[in-house]
Amino acid sequence: PADGIRFKRVLLKVSGEALMGQRDYGLDPEVVNRVANEVKAVIELGVQVSLVIGGGNIFRGVKGAASGMERASADYIGMLATVMNALSMQSALERMGVATRVQSAIPMSSVCEPYIRRRAIRHMEKGRVVIFAAGTGNPFFTTDTAAALRASEMGCDALLKGTQVDGVYTADPKKVKDAERYERLGYLEVLSKDLQVMDASAISLARESRIPILVFSIHTPGAFAEVMQGRGKFTIIN
Ligand code: UDP
């Protein structure tokens, strides 16, 4: 990596909703391009990058189950939604000249590669962005957990969570005016205070794997690259 870069290999988790822009469903191509640009800037710093993209902008299992569908079936639909998002991100990145590979936890051989741990590591070593699709491949999990799992498997130095705001706050900064941003939090503090950063299984897994979670705004231009250099605004959980 370039001078001043604190991480060699990272995984960025972006929720599906972050790619929705002002729409109430699906993808906003402009937002997808902006996020792709953020990733490109970090690749150019010499950092190895992998991505997990959620699917909540298209389908969420819990909601499907609430309307009468069997939970597992609804979750599979949710996982398929993440594949659509992964392919959209792949195409945005490749248009910018960034080499990518999509690996799906649910094999879909005519669409993308199946998830193969060692192969994913190899892609990253070659400077390719690996986009992990279909979550963990299991119902009853989330893409947050998938992100912590893949980051652990890849031996990432950090798990980045790109959110709508620039870190974790004492209260929702969009609603509470004097909400304050935490500079640092412990994993257990996040769990005991029930702070809505990532779900509890993701936090626990990151803790066990000793991977710091850095929460930052995915919508602030250049923020991802800044965080990689220890600059800008973010909350670190470690
Ligand atoms: N999902 C799943 N197993 C996984 C990952 C995801 O069953 O390992 C399903 C689940 O139904 C979830 C949906 O896929 O609601 C979309 O993922 P998520 O809600 O995590 O997306 P995000 O909120 O990040 O957009």
UniProtKB/TrEMBL annotation:
Inhibited by UTP. InterPro entries: AceGlu_kinase-like_sf, Asp/Glu/Uridylate_kinase, Uridylate_kinase, Uridylate_kinase_bac. GO terms for molecular function: UMP kinase activity. Its EC number is 2.7.4.22. UMP binds at residues 55, 75, 136-143. It is found in: Cytoplasm. It catalyses: UMP + ATP = UDP + ADP. It is an enzyme of class 2 (transferase). Transmembrane segments: none annotated. ATP binds at residues 13-16, 56, 60, 163-164, 169, 172. Pathway: Pyrimidine metabolism; CTP biosynthesis via de novo pathway; UDP from UMP (UMPK route): step 1/1. Catalyzes the reversible phosphorylation of UMP to UDP. Belongs to the UMP kinase family. HAMAP family: PyrH_B. This is Uridylate kinase. It comes from Azospirillum isscasi. The gene is pyrH.
